[in-house]
Amino acid sequence: MLIGVVGKPSSGKSTFFSAATMVETEIANYPFTTIEPNKGIGFVRIECIDKEFKVQCNPRTGYCKNGIRFVPVEMIDVAGLVPGASTGKGRGNAFLSDLSRADVLIHVVDASGSINEKGEPVALGSYNPCNDIKFLEEEIGLWFFGILQKNWQKISKQPIESKQKKLEALSSALSGLAIKESQLEKALKETGLEEKKFQQWAEEEKKEFAFALRKISKPIVIAANKCDIPVSENKIKEMKEKFPGYLIIPCSGFAEMALKKAAKQGLIEYEAGAKEFKEKGELNEKQKGLLEAVKKTVLEKYGSTGIQEILEKSVFEVLKYIAVFPAGTKKLEDSEGNILPDVFLIPPNSTALDFAFRLHTTMGKGFIRAIDVKTKHMVGKEHKLKHRDAIEIIFKE
Question: Which end of the chain is more exposed for a tag (fewer CB within 10 A), N or C?
């Protein structure tokens, strides 16, 4: 599971990433502050299963608080993209290649309209952020198309004897994008190119296929950043009206950073995704003013800073991933005595066998059966897992 954070320069992308991961990054109001990609860990929340077993879990990674498990997800923040990135403008090809392994993309858009298409400051509200949604989707689609074009001569010369051979040829040509055969198959079906030979594909059909494949394999969630700035409210409304099929979530990376830093200093009690905070330390006038502004312009208006909501909707709503706990029917502890130490985020429709391979290749190859630890029922390798399942794998070594 890898979440890519993208956007044009100075959109607040690095602030969003830092707010989600608390990784220190260079933040400045000029293009290409970020050159090398930043990597970090964010967290998504699920209801822990420990209370169902009347125990207290001991997570190996992440943490659990008040019955809520914070599950780690990898994140990568790439340098700002500008129009023409797919042709190499602004080192675009290098920056796009950093996204090749991402499962979902969070596009951070400056909803205040104070940054133009090149990432340069302009008058507040004078730029239309709808342009950014269109340009970035176009650039990433063209990136896919460019990779397909680069390898087209090679795959179009191959004798394709079956549907499987066609999928294998496409998979080989696009191997650097971490695309699954099921995603290729879906894109072929959506574009009506399932039965058509590669030699018969027109230029426009190749482009249509590349764009469809991008939507399927690397869906985009829009983070409407800087929602704390008054002019942003109408801009966000306009974005939602113009792009009704998109998931557009208001957020403030600045507000989340301020709250997390205040909590780290012991000034307030705050948990990521919460709609409020509690003061617990002595605040000076500047700190009081900042936190009061965050409360009024963000928390009371939008219900949260939006950062946590964006991460969770990307994982659970867009990708439809589920969380599954490895466990045992006789004991819930690992060899070191940690209770329910692990939980894995896996794709929808994953089977018991898929989960066995996710845990270890030996478990997958030696799979005998699985046990639903909650019900104590034995299940076979084709059994589809559900969100918050606890599964024991029986295997031969």
Answer: C
